[in-house]
């Protein structure tokens, strides 16, 4: 997968008004955001997300789910998840129509592949937000696609009416966990064998992603035809307590200790060096930093295995070091 290089770039914030807040399904609300000054919003491509500043110190990423041709509004879908770190609950419970909030410009780490002749879209739960945007785009340009949308039940299926009334509704298959066995997603049947020019896109909870991605791998789909976006980095099996190590700033030569209980970004911050962060869980790519020397211990869900193996960049918000010293391009 090719994507734009993205290193420690902070976007200017945009002030938007919540024009509409609507219940889309059980525990899921959509928020329609328009620019407070009435100007058009920056253009975006299917798969893009924005950082939403929910309140001071609380920023979360949400994929844009409206038609990517639209510039008068952004539409995000938010699952209120009390088990998460608090961003979705704060947004759904406290932000109401008419409120002014700040968002970043859109960024896209989950783009459609231009070279694809056909696309297979897999959405699990709230993972539908970027996938629906992709479906809108593919339908708009007349590109062949098929979308599979898995949820626990019809009541928990966001944007169902929108999909059913869309021009591409016959290209979408719904799969409900509480439905009959024959309507459940059989990824083996869908991904029966790799087809040159066909690209897969997967977004949803970790268990869903693992199922689709493992099936694709078992069926021999090449990595470059498989695109994914996680909500949270998969939990890695810990083999023991984290070790301490040091990071060195290439520009000044300053060496900073990173103790086991601190992230690299936190350790740097105590010395006044701030790396921009957003998700702080290895998903969004905001903190990406180049590695000049040493071997990072990658713990993110952002980079592909190939990118991780190159060891020339990493996510210091959650990743650590396998070597005693990491020299960073800071
Ligand atoms: Fe999101 Fe590091 S802040 S990957």
Explained architecture:
It is a single chain. This protein is of the alpha/beta class. It folds into 3 domains: 14-103, Elongation Factor Tu (Ef-tu), domain 3, CATH 2.40.30; 118-230, 3-Layer(aba) Sandwich (Rossmann fold), CATH 3.40.50.80; 245-328, Roll (Ubiquitin-like (UB roll)). 17% of the residues lie in helices and 29% in strands. It is built from 7 helices and 18 strands. It has helices at 87-94, 128-141, 160-164, 187-190, 206-218, 264-269, 305-310, and strands at residues 14-25, 28-35, 49-55, 58-63, 74-79, 100-103, 118-124, 144-151, 172-176, 198-203, 226-229, 245-249, 255-258, 289-293, 296-297, 313-314, 320-321, 325-328. The strands form 4 sheets. A 6-stranded antiparallel beta sheet has the order 4-3-6-1-2-5, with helices on one face. A 5-stranded parallel beta sheet has the order 9-8-7-10-11, sandwiched between helices. It starts with 13 loop residues before the first strand and ends with a strand. Mean pLDDT is 91; it is low at 1-9. The structure holds FE2/S2 (inorganic) cluster (FES). FE2/S2 (inorganic) cluster binds next to loops. Residues 277-280, 282-287, 300, 302, 315, 317 line the site of FE2/S2 (inorganic) cluster (FES).
Structural class: alpha/beta
Q: Give the helix level as a range of percent.
A: 10-25%
**Ligand types:** FE2/S2 (inorganic) cluster
The fourth-level CATH homologous superfamily of the largest domain is: Nucleotide-binding domain of ferredoxin-NADP reductase (FNR) module
What is the CATH topology descriptor of the largest domain?
A: Rossmann fold
CATH hierarchy: architecture of the largest domain: 3-Layer(aba) Sandwich
Which stretches of 5+ consecutive residues score pLDDT under 50? 1-9
Global outline: globular
Q: What top-tier CATH class of the largest domain fits best?
A: Alpha Beta
Biggest sheet, open or closed, and with what strands and sense? 6 strands, antiparallel
Q: Structurally, how many domains make up the residues?
A: 3
Report Rg. Answer: 20 Å
Q: How far apart lie the N and C ends? A: 26 Å
Count of separate DSSP helical elements: 7
| Largest sheet strand order | 4-3-6-1-2-5
């Amino acid at each position: 997968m090719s994507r734009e290089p993205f290193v420690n770039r902070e976007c200017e914030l945009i002030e938007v008004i919540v024009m509409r807040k609507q219940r889309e399904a059980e525990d899921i609300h959509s928020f329609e955001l328009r620019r407070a000054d009435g100007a058009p919003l920056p253009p975006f491509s299917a798969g893009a997300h924005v950082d939403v500043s929910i309140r001071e110190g609380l920023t979360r990423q949400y994929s844009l789910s409206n038609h990517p041709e639209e510039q008068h509004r952004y539409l995000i879908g938010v699952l209120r998840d009390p088990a998460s770190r608090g961003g979705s609950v704060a947004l759904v419970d406290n932000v109401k129509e008419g409120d002014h909030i700040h968002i970043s410009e859109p960024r896209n780490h989950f783009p459609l592949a231009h070279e694809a002749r056909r696309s297979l879209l897999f959405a699990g739960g709230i993972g539908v937000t970027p996938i629906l945007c992709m479906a809108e785009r593919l339908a708009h340009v007349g590109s062949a696609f098929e979308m599979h949308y898995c949820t626990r039940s019809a009541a928990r299926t966001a944007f169902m009416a929108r999909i059913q009334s869309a021009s591409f509704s016959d290209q979408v298959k719904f799969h409900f966990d509480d439905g009959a066995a024959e309507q459940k997603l059989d990824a083996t049947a869908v991904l029966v064998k790799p087809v040159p020019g066909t690209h897969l896109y997967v977004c949803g909870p970790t268990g869903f992603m693992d199922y689709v991605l493992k099936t694709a791998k078992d069926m021999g789909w090449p990595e470059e035809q498989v695109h994914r976006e996680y909500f949270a980095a998969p939990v890695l099996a810990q083999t023991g307590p984290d070790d301490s190590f040091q990071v060195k700033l290439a520009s000044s030569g300053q060496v900073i200790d990173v103790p086991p209980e601190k992230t690299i970004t936190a350790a740097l911050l105590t010395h006044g060096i701030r790396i921009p962060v957003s998700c702080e869980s290895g998903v969004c790519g905001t903190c990406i930093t180049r590695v000049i020397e040493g071997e990072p211990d990658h713990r993110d869900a952002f980079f592909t295995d190939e990118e991780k193996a190159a060891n020339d960049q990493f996510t210091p918000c959650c990743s650590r070091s396998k070597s005693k010293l990491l020299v960073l391009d800071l």
